[in-house]
Design brief:
5 copies of one chain form a homopentamer. By secondary structure, chain A is of the alpha/beta class. Chain A has an 8-stranded parallel beta barrel with strand order 1-2-3-6-7-8-9-10, surrounded by 6 helices. The first copy, chain A, has a two-stranded antiparallel sheet with strand order 4-5. In chain A, helix 8 packs parallel to helix 10. Chain A is globular.
Chain lengths: 300, 300, 300, 300, 300
């Protein structure tokens, strides 16, 4: 371990008072309560459409996710403006909000992936949100518009003391030719970008090691042969003073999920953002699993 | 029926006072009067040109549609700025206005469909309108510009307490490859997007079930074999706390139209938006049919 | 004649006071004086370059056209900012001004025709103009930028009480495949768009009936067999409460021109906009012909 | 000579006070002193890079051109923001400044030529400049952006009383197919555009008559067989109330240059803008030639 | 040596007070202390991703570079917003900051290279920075957007008295066809552009002479046969009153690096900007080498 590495804390990140108030609320007053973050997202349904709701028809109704976030006492729920404006009033104060402020559908080609703003930081302020969420497609040919848009969001976040959570998705033909969107190279770059762009929190995928594809990545990534959890540990360090969240992705078995929780926490991440793995099941099951995850997180 | 589903009402949608005042006017003071909406649109003539007026030459003159809306006591008339600014003064107070604020002609290719603003929310305020209408081409390659433009319109609607009605049209090569613009998949996605983007009301087409084409839709849509009315019921639920309007499309027989009314209402929609089916006939006939439709709507 | 058609008048168009003052000045204090409009344009030289001046070398000097507009007491002169700012001071109060505020050269390809702003509505106010002129290329692939730009100009016109004159030119490959830019279909659509976009006055070409090409137009235009003057009558009605001006186009014989005047007036247009037909001849001849045209117009 | 032509003077151009003060300073207090303009440009080095400095290494240092402009008492020096901000303080009051406010390098393809703003009219005001310079690529496929940008610059010039000098360069494939960028057709169109866009002064090239290429120009240009000086006379008239400057282009012999001066002045131009012909020689030679040119100009 | 060349100094560059205060701090209160600049950059990791950190794992943590900048008393550290906002608080006052305000990743194609803003000049003011850094891709097909963006940054710098450091990178197919990005031609043009755009300081690469490729450059560059150090001397003069920094590039041996220092200083540059050559080694080694470089710089 380098002498120069400091784990990010609310004390050493150069945070403004407003950011600190809001992050503290999610990290200590909600969620596992020990400075860790457990986030429940439904923002992805802008990108997927309603296909994800069929395994659990209740999940089609945002009331379900809000209820789960409240009873499971998640750190926050993450969703787009419409679902906040239409439902949050019944859960005001009970469920911290991460307002996702950009998005797109997955219907047309993803070749020049770019997510337009669906709301503003000021909208988030007005809704009493505790953070905004932004998706950056690292490596997309449209990166110039994306970086510029994120920089403006970041300035607004600074102005309003609003924490900025960045979903960093490597995307585009170029990254596919360099090992793919879930490679160590791609995610390590994304984590660094998160810190460079001044994200307070970043959401990434758990890296998938694939020696065959990794050969196409730039040196030295092309030659490293790491386990995924070791790669994740390095990614957490590349993110520096940006908190890292690992996403759950599509649904897997409970034991695999809990294993993912433990490996992620061991690697030093600050939290988890699990959507389909939680709400693609009945409320009772979802609440039970939530408790097991929070327990596992409290061990770190 | 899921425990988590609530039908949208003026009470549970998180509406501002201004939005509520204006929606109430259309839903209870005009139209069927029981909280349902019956809208008369002529906005589509920006997109079609005057071809639709030939079956009933009187219909070429906006005076005709205004007269019909007034005597038939429609919930509102929907049209573009020019027709409001030049004719509404004679019907002020009698006919609520949904100002359609974006549009395009159908002359050039539709491949990258996008409708520019033809007016602003502030224009609507100045004209005493009770809502604005916006067309989003879900799935068009130009979706990034479209979503960003809609988000700005939505912010202005929030600022002015102006209800937002969104015409959600799936459009573009990609959707045609996934079952087509009128498929359950396409319209279900559109309905969800309506809610995610915070539309108060959304206008959709009645889904057309075509097992041959639906095979190309993503799972599980590719395997569902539903009747259209059952698909519509699910679409209404995907729209959540956004009121759904079913459009009439091109002219059909009176009995087919009334059948459409009943099936739509049974599926849980809040209203109907019928243009050519109403004004492509003589005034007297149109008024009679309007009464039959309103009667049918009052049964729900 | 439909009961629902009203000819547009200053009383029934929903005009603001400022628009009414300025239109009244052009329609009753200048020109034929009976509510008709006779406009002298030189704006087209931005689009053509100086080629049009060779038949009458005097015409190269804007002083010539201003002199003609003053002595012939035209309703207004229409030109771009430079010619207003550099010459109008000598004719201030004598010649009403329609400031043309967008344009382009005809040097590069017309395939994506779009005319950028060369001046603003505020410029027109500052120059004491009585209207602004705007060219919309109906059906161009660049229509999204064009419609958006026109909508902003229209909002400024509303703000300043400035009448809006729209030059509606069907343009682009798509319209050529549907009968061509001078077909009844194309011009009828343009006239409707004029009203939808809230133009106070619109300039169109006299339709050319060509059964061979019209077959490619959408139904029912593909099957109509009308005389040009009858088509024009219908176009005037499609324009509704927007005054219609017929343009002269390239130079024709005096008798043909006067025939065009009579046919146009019979069809119900409000005015004429004749440029090359007037100023491609000596001053004396131009003034004589002007009187003949005004006399012909006064008969309606 | 047409009765309708007036040579432009400070009296008849409709100038604001601020424009008149600044033009007077350049036309009567500096330069030949008789209402003519002799401009020294180094702005072209943004477009060329340092290649032009090799014939006279001293010319690489802006101090050289400033010194020449001061001792030769030029009407003004024309250059970009950096050279003004870094050197003008030593010559403040001695050398009037035309701040060139847009530019580009010649490294990438010129096919869609467009010069972005490198400074603003307000920058020019702050630096005490007596005019701004703007390059318009007449006929470039990017003309829509160019015309719009120029219109905004023109509005700022009106606001600040700042004279506008436009470098009109015909450019692009289309103009090359119609006789080429230096043809009478191309430059005559450019001169008209200068007046239409409200330039106070325009810089053009001396036309090159080439019967072989001119055949491709539009009628009647394709059939005219004029001497260059006669073409220039007509171009000056096409520019109307915009002063015309003829540029020197690449270096030619002193006698050819003086011949160009005389032919230009005879054709009615208001001034000359000579760069490389002046500063690609030693200071002493440059000053001597400057005097000969000013003497030649004073004869008109 | 030309009589017209003046080396740039804080006295003769036309600087505002604010720019002078900030440049003085970097040139005399930090760094070698004799008016020279030694800059430590980590901004390039936005463009490279974390690959550069593998040779020295400590370097992945910005704390390392800050520590090095502080103990080695560099003139300034150059980095993006995130690394400033999250770490500078611990080094406030000890390490002057050059805030790099635009960037991009190197994942997608570089064919139309353009770096969007990642922060604003106002951000730099708020952070107490002593300069901003901007990358211009000279010769990229996207130069029109780049020049316009730089001009706006420059205006903000003037407004706030913030020195402007421009990273001038020749880039794109066109420059590769004219000798390449590191040719004398390319860098000489870049240096001139730095001055024309009013950069206070510019960062360039040491030119690489390659007679084979230089043949493709424009005359006279195609025929010059200079040593690299002589080319650099001319480049420094092309930059005029803009201070020149030479960059280190990828890591080379200590003796080669010191040789580069001496050759650069002899050629008249004002400073050096060495990143990987410094921080791709242990802290102790880096500090020792820093001292040797500063000693070498103090000899000039």
């Amino acid at each position: 371990m380098s002498d120069y590495y400091e784990r990010p804390t609310l004390d050493n990140m150069g945070l403004s008072v407003g950011k600190r108030v809001r992050l503290h609320r999610m990290m200590y007053e909600h969620g596992p309560g020990n400075g860790k973050l457990l986030i429940l997202p439904i923002d992805q349904e802008v990108e997927h459409g309603p296909v994800d709701f069929f395994p659990n028809p209740d999940s089609k109704f945002p009331q379900f996710q809000y209820q789960l976030a409240k009873e499971g006492r998640y750190s926050a729920i993450a969703l787009h403006y419409g679902l906040a404006a239409k439902y949050l009033h019944s859960f005001a104060g009970d469920v911290p909000l991460i307002l996702k402020i950009n998005g797109k559908t997955n219907i047309p080609s993803d070749a020049e992936a770019f997510s337009s703003l669906t709301a503003s930081v000021e909208d988030a302020v007005r809704l009493g949100a505790d953070a905004v969420g932004y998706t950056l497609y690292v490596g997309s040919p449209a990166q110039d518009a994306d970086i510029a848009q994120l920089a403006e969001v970041r300035e607004d976040c600074d102005r309003f003391g609003m924490p900025l959570v960045v979903w960093y998705y490597p995307r585009g033909e170029a990254i596919e030719k360099k090992g793919g969107r879930d490679s160590f190279y791609a995610i390590d770059y994304a984590a660094r970008m998160a810190q460079e762009m001044c994200a307070d929190v970043t959401k990434i995928n758990f890296p998938k090691m694939d020696p065959q594809r990794d050969k196409d990545a730039p040196e030295p990534y092309s030659e490293l042969e790491l386990r995924g959890s070791e790669a994740l540990r390095q990614i957490v360090r590349s993110a520096g003073k940006t908190f890292v969240l690992v996403s759950g992705g599509s649904k897997i078995s409970d034991e695999d999920l809990l294993q993912k929780v433990r490996e992620s926490m061991e690697a030093g991440v600050t939290g988890l953002i699990f959507g389909r793995n939680m709400w693609q099941r009945k409320m009772e099951d979802a609440l039970k699993l939530t408790e097991r995850i929070k327990d596992a997180m409290r061990a770190f």
